[in-house]
Amino acid sequence: MTNTAVCDWLMAHADTPIRYRIAREFLLDFKTAQALEPELFKHKAVVFWLALLKPASPPQHRWMEHGSFDFCLENALLKAVQLGLHGGLPPVTDAVGFYLDKLERCAPETLFQDFSALLTVTLLSLAEVRHERVRQAMLQRLDHLQSFSLHAADLYFSASERAKLTGVPACWKNREHFIRPAFIREYGFGFPLLYDLVGLHSLYRLQDPETDRKIDDILRYLSTDAFHRLIGNGYGILAEENGAYHSMGWDPKYPGWFDVPAYLQSGNMPRLLFFALHAARYPVARATRWFADLLHCLDTYQTAEGCYAFPAEWLAEKTGYAVLGSHLSFGENRRKHGWREIESTFFMQLLTQDHRTAQHGAS
After folding, report:
1. DSSP E strand boundaries for the chain
2. Residue 316: what pLDDT?
3. Alpha-carbon distances of 259 from 193, 236, 254, 264, 325, rounded to whole Å
């Protein structure tokens, strides 16, 4: 539910990115949002990240989609969205043209054998880049993920099979979760990834009951003790048929699923906060004990004035993977008095917002 008093306070005190998002996503005041666009594109953080989002010619790196560099799509586009940018803005459409061109050249039948293509699809959808190829690929991905729970038991080698593996690097010898190469060969990246959690909720914009049901079914499976007990951290180690071993990653397990208060004491809070930003967009996730416990814990940071003030280290801003919480700033000037209260209060608004209604109303 939108707290209009808090929105008014943020509109009066926040820098342009938060004010733009409040107007567009919370108040659904598109006239005000449009009036703020020139100011938004002059904002220091927006200028910086929009420049990083558009690859140089030639591109800065062989792998522009995936990596910890700021210019990688998974960091630059997530940060751009954090600052309020979206595909309805021409500079954003222009900046992501490189990735749309690559996506159109990717064969549909091999799309999810390619991790870079998967990242591109989910992130462009998150950013509201309206393109038929993106829409079709997201719906294809949705069907792809729906069947995972039927095959999840086939993902890992059994204990007896693990004992027969040879050439396992010493650092991984005691690991329990070794992924069968046959699973990857058959299904590609058919198991849910953190990036799916980041992007799937964008399909609520289609307002299609059957699509909504599929999304909710996937989230119900992810939001279980059984899933969290089955899946190893980062999914584990892929044992390839040629004898090579690779560490995987990007599992969509809820940080602190079994004990949120304990995680807050000893865990990686930026990672949890990033996860919560996107989990909050799913009605199924919002109905979990985990979400209720998280809100209860975060409420302890409420100020006497009804705002929030998280520890500064929770709102990290550093080079690294956005999905691990490296870029949680909403663009506030960190030298400005009260920036923590502004960003923390906006964060809580995002957690308690009816996102499905906002997505249906946004233009």
Report:
1. 178-179, 237-239, 245-247
2. 84
3. 22, 22, 10, 9, 20
In this prediction the pTM is: 0.93
**Pair of tokens at residue 236:** 């584990």
User: How many residues can be counted in the chain?
Assistant: 363
- Write the Ramachandran bin of 175: left for phi over 0, alpha for psi from -120 to 50, otherwise beta: beta
Residues β-bridged to residue 239: 245
Contacts of 117 (CB under 8 A, 6+ apart): 102, 103, 106, 111, 137
> How far, rounded to the nearest angstrom, does the alpha carbon of residue 188 sit from its chain's CA centroid?
20
Contact indicator for 318, 281 with CB cutoff of 8 Å: no
* Cβ burial 187-220 (10 Å sphere, 16+ → b, else e): bbbbbbbbbbbbbbbbbbbeeeeebeebbbebbb
d(CA 363, CA 359): 8
Write the CB contacts of 141 (distance below 8 Å, at least 6 apart in sequence).
111, 112, 118, 121, 122, 196, 200
Q: Which of 54, 72, 55 is nearest to 63 (CA)?
A: 72
Average pLDDT for residues 284-311, to the nearest whole number?
95
Token pair of 215 as six digits: 């999304």
Label residue 305 exposed, middle or buried (CB < 10 Å: 0-12, 13-18, 19+).
Answer: exposed
Report the candidate in 281, 359, 280, 328 with the shortest Cα–Cα distance to residue 88. Answer: 359
Model confidence at 363: pLDDT above 50: no
Structure tokens at 150: 């039927």
C-alpha 78/C-alpha 359 separation (Å) is 17
Helix 339-352 and helix 289-298, axial crossing angle in degrees, nearest 10: 160
pLDDT at 255 over 50: yes
CB 342, CB 16: distance < 8 Å: no
Q: In angstroms, what CA-CA distances link 360 with 128, 158, 204, 350, 355?
A: 12, 45, 7, 16, 9
